Amino acid sequence: MQQRTRPASKARPSADLCVAPTRAIEVAQNARADRGRRARRLPYVAAGATAAAGYGAWGLSELAQLAAGPAGEVVVSTGTAGLCAAALGILRLHRGSVIPKLWRRRLWTAGASAASWVTAASAVGPVSWPMTAALVVGTAAASASWLRAHEVPTPPSLALPGQPIEKPARLAAADENPGVLLVRRWTENIAADGKPVPGSLLTDRVDLPHAIRWTVQTIPGSTSFSAMFAQRDRIAAGLRWGSARVLLEPSDVDESAAVLTVITKDILKDGIAYTGPRYRDGVIELGPFADGSGWSEYVAVDGVGCRNGMATGEPGSGKSAFLEAVAMGLKSSGEWVVLFGDGDPEGGSSPLLNNLADWPAAGPQQILQQLQALEAALIVRGMLKPTLTAGPDGTPIPITDPTTQIPVRELRPSRRFPAIKWILDELHRLSADPWLTERRFIPRLEQLVRIGRKYGIVVLTGSQSLLAPDYGNSTPLRGYLAARNLYAFRNGNKSEKAVVSGLEIAPSVLPPGGGYAFSTGSGRLAMLRVAWSPDMARHADGLPTTALDPDTELAIARFRPAAEADPATAFAEQTAKLAVWRAQQGAGAVPAATVPLDAGPTALPAAAGLAGLAVPSALTAANVIPIHRPATSAAPATSAAVEAGPDLEALSSSQQSVVEALRAGHQRTGAIAAQTGLRLPAVSKALSALADLGLAERVAHGNWVPAGAIADPAVKSS
Q1: What is the dihedral of CA 450, 453, 457, 463, to 10 degrees?
Q2: pLDDT mean across residues, the chain
Q3: What is the number of domains present in the chain?
Q4: Do residue 585 and residue 481 come from a single domain?
Q5: Which of 478, 470, 408 is nearest to 449 (CA)?
Q6: Structural domain ending residue among the three candidates 263, 294, 318
Q7: Residue 159: inside a domain, yes or no?
Q8: How far is Cα 393 from Cα 135, in angstroms, rounded to an integer?
Q9: Burial (0-12, 13-18, 19+ Cβ within 10 Å), 652
Q10: Residue 226 near residue 258 (C-beta atoms within 8 A)
Q11: Phi and psi at residue 290, in whole multiples of 5°?
Q12: Crossing angle of helices 101-124/129-149, nearest 10°?
């Protein structure tokens, strides 16, 4: 059977098909009203034409009477009757089939009556009360049923002066179903000619719990999804809906189609409570999408191995909460070891990550130690990987038969061989640090990110923007980090664009408030919000501590610092640093804003050498390192003064040992470690703390001297 092909001109949907059901009813009602108005005018037009014909016939009759006498008047009257009869016959012959059967008899009767009136008017004249009354009464009688059948709804009465005009019912959007309202607005403001997507249709409506979803069908070949997505702001404006609540995503069926989701209830506005780590099959669930259909995912490991990640956003956008949620998810699995490097030298970006990480670090020096440790682990795992094969469950196990067992392609996280996630926050500060720049921090980090995935060593960074300077102008580094897990949090810089599923999205359109982001991990263009709670730290209690495999642990052990001091000791050291800084600034007392109202300042004993220094009652002499105030601020301290000044009892045991080694003349870090018996990381940490306290000075890389000794000519010459 021959198939009928549709002509090319029919490819465009007809106007009737492009009209939504509610709009179609409106159009039909308006058309019927227009036809009713035209029909109601018909009796009046016919009466006027009859009167005009009667006056014309009477005028001809009067002229004929003047020219030929009474005979001429008779001829005109007879001719008028014949013309009217002929006109009725011609009209019935050509238009009779068009007239509805219901009205045929009445219309021909009315036509015959009008012809009779015109003939009579030509004989006796229309200018008389009987003739005028006959015309008016006859018209009313003949048109009564016609007018009843073609009534037009009476428009609403006009409001009185000073009263608001009532809008038509169809414009009252508040009482209209949201789905019907959106379809009508799409038809009028988006699908019409000259609008963003002319000729488009909304089909396959799906009602979600908090949104409505349609498939947008367009004229094949007229547009593409990327073109529609570029006009999403105009689409949102045409729907008169917030742009953040209008989602446009590609269709998996047709490139000329799209999936439109309009959020009717904002479930993200009040925040999403964090209820605990959610790690499953290498994926961490972080927060719901705006339409409520699923949660966003951070892909820690997939079919190709471990994955890197990147989070960007302005201060307060929610990056730290995101990093904390990822870290807790990884720790809960028992298959990951988490390292945390904070670009803030004081380690203030995330106290939770400092407590949660297996190895926290802060500042350029400590983070460089972490990088060196991971580089060493990369070398060891490069030798280790060829000796492992995939077990029954896919986890690596040692090879027992090299002739039949094939080495693993990549090291996947397991309890026997845990993967390492290095979380680097404040990357923009690290990339701009001159000391790290001299040590090629960014190129070395790029190499680690590029090849570490195969060996179970990956990086997750946090920075304030997507711009290249935040990544040391290394676009390859930025690309490797964002390849699978890019979380773009709000950023007021409108020039920034995040590429999600091949399309550019501006993070500046995200609502204010922490946690809003776009992500690439789930392959959706929808907005999400990361779950967060003020008491997230309680979920970190009881998380398992995962030990590295012996080879990797041995590789990084020489870079890892000694065990951290207990919280009380760490607090005492920080308090002492603050008190010494106040003393060095010449502050005789703590600023009034920081002094408790119920307790005055407590002066140190005069024997401590700081009679003029007052500190809050929360601090005691045991927490403060007393230092003699110099006579003048310009006079440099001597070695003798340094030896006599500090109260070594206020220092930790490792710091005391390092100070004694420095005074004994040991300047290199290795010599100090050999003298004190401490590990190199512990020595480096103690030296950094002593430098902050003003008790040690670094001469060169790895060389240290007591404070004030750098002015000694002998030290200079050495």
Answers
A1: 50
A2: 77
A3: 4
A4: no
A5: 478
A6: 263
A7: no
A8: 102
A9: middle
A10: no
A11: -65, -30
A12: 170
- CA 562 to each of CA 95, 198, 345, 434: distance values in angstroms, whole numbers, following the listed order: 107, 68, 18, 27
In terms of domains, do 128 and 29 share one? yes
Q: Would 115 be classed as within a structural domain? A: yes
Class of residue 45 by CB neighbours under 10 A (exposed 0-12, middle 13-18, buried 19+):
exposed
Distance CA 691, CA 658 (A): 12
Q: Which of 516, 445, 453, 448 is nearest to 487 (CA)?
A: 516
What is this structure's pTM?
Answer: 0.57
pLDDT at position 19, please?
43
Signed CA dihedral, 338, 342, 345, 348: sign only = negative
Q: Any bridge partners for residue 298, and if so which?
A: 284
The amino acid sitting at 565 is A
What are 656-702's pLDDT values in tens digits?
888 888 888 888 887 888 888 887 777 877 887 788 777 888 776 67
Q: Which of 560, 192, 214 is nearest to 366 (CA)?
A: 560
156 vs 418, more confident: 418
Contact (Cβ atoms closer than 8 angstroms) between residue 131 and residue 114: no
Q: How far apart are the first and last CA of the chain?
A: 103
d(CA 515, CA 488): 10
Tell whether 394 is covered by a domain.
no
Q: In this structure, which amino acid lies at residue 92?
A: R
Q: Of the candidates 492, 511, 545, which is a domain's last residue? A: 545
pLDDT at 263 over 70: yes
Q: Quick one: which of 246, 254, 205 has its CA closest to 225? A: 254
Binning pLDDT at 50, 70 and 90, where does residue 606 land?
A: very low
Residues 209 and 309 placed together within one structural domain of the fold:
no
User: Nearest to residue 247, comparing CAs of 225, 231, 263, 234?
Assistant: 263
Burial 527-540 (b: 16+ CB within 10 A, else e): bbbbbbeeebeebb
Contact assessment for residue 24 and residue 185, using Cβ atoms and an 8 Å cutoff: no
Q: Which two tokens stand for residue 569?
A: 């000791």
- If asked whether residues 602 and 681 sit together in one domain, one would say yes
Residue 491, pLDDT > 90, answer no
Q: Give the whole-angstrom CA distance, residue 260 versus residue 218.
A: 12
Give the tens place of pLDDT for each residue, 267-320.
888 888 899 999 998 999 999 988 888 888 999 999 888 999 999 988 888 899
pLDDT on residue 30:
62
Nearest Cα residue to 107 out of 91, 118, 119: 91
- pLDDT tens per residue, range 135-192: 888 888 887 777 766 665 444 333 344 444 444 444 444 446 788 889 889 988 998 8
Residue 388 in tokens: 């492992």
Query: In whole angstroms, what is the distance from residue 307 CA to residue 305 CA?
Result: 6
Going by C-alpha positions, the residue among 270, 343, 296 that lies closest to residue 528 is 296
Residue 216, domain extent: 174-263
Give me the sign of the Cα torsion angle 536, 541, 544, 548.
positive
Return the pLDDT at 165. Answer: 42
CA dist., res. 613 & res. 390, Å (int) = 66
Task: Give me the CATH number covering residue 214.
Answer: 3.30.980.40
DSSP state of 623: G
pLDDT above 60: residue 8: no
Average the pLDDT over 187-210 and give the result: 87
